[in-house]
């Protein structure tokens, strides 16, 4: 029994649209609020509002779907302090728990069972100064680093960061994802192949299936 609560925008069951578990049925717990303003943000509806729920209520709602995978996302979930406690509570229930985070808040103290999917914000996101590069040392082989690429310049920047931080040796997967509607999917795919980059190209499966609707 926990006294803690967080503000929640939505909890829903869908297919994971990104990362290593793409295509697998997953419960999404979307926390409200984000201190960043990436120009391509597709979850602005999660910036404000939401409903305060206790961690027990959240766990009960998640359990009602009987999932294997649970993804805690936002907004920026770590902007709410009890998020860390929520992640541990979900791990304790036996789920495979992932955290989607902007990379702008510290990952210190996050339960080691959680798969961290951390963004490194590119220059064309508009939020590159927010990257907390100290977080990279807190990632391990089950974690993933994601670059959302908006342009060729972003791609070159991401390629540079890949080598500067030896990301491929530090994490399980580096994801290069085209910013929806801003960079041609084939262009990004071709750049990766031409440069023989050891990264995974991904696009947002949920956008292909359901467009830009909340709740998927
Ligand atoms: S960090 Fe994520 S939720 Fe926050 S503004 Fe950027 S894309 Fe949107």
Describe this structure in words.
The chain has six helices and nine strands. A nine-stranded mixed β-sheet has the order 3-1-2-4-5-6-7-8-9. The model has no long low-confidence stretch (mean pLDDT 96). It is globular, with a radius of gyration of 17 Å. With 216 residues, it is an alpha/beta fold. The protein has helices spanning 55-63, 83-92, 152-164, 167-170, 185-194, 205-210; strands at residues 5-15, 25-31, 51-54, 69-73, 96-101, 115-119, 144-149, 173-178, 200-201. Helix content is 24%, strand content 24%. The site of iron/sulfur cluster has 10 residues, from loops.
Short description:
With 216 residues, this protein is α/β, with parallel strands linked by helices.
**Roughly how many Å apart are the termini?**
30 Å
Q: What are the secondary-structure elements, in order, as H or E?
A: EEEHEHEEEHHEHEH
Over all CA atoms, what is the radius of gyration? 17 Å
Shape: globular
Q: How are the strands ordered across the major sheet?
A: 3-1-2-4-5-6-7-8-9
Low-confidence stretches: none
Helix count equals: 6
Portion in strands: 15-25%
Write the layout of secondary structure elements.
Layout: E1 5-15, E2 25-31, E3 51-54, H1 55-63, E4 69-73, H2 83-92, E5 96-101, E6 115-119, E7 144-149, H3 152-164, H4 167-170, E8 173-178, H5 185-194, E9 200-201, H6 205-210
Parallel strand pairs: 2-4, 4-5, 5-6, 6-7, 7-8, 8-9
Antiparallel strand pairs: 1-2, 1-3
Residues 34, 36-38, 41, 43, 74-76, 102 line the site of iron/sulfur cluster.
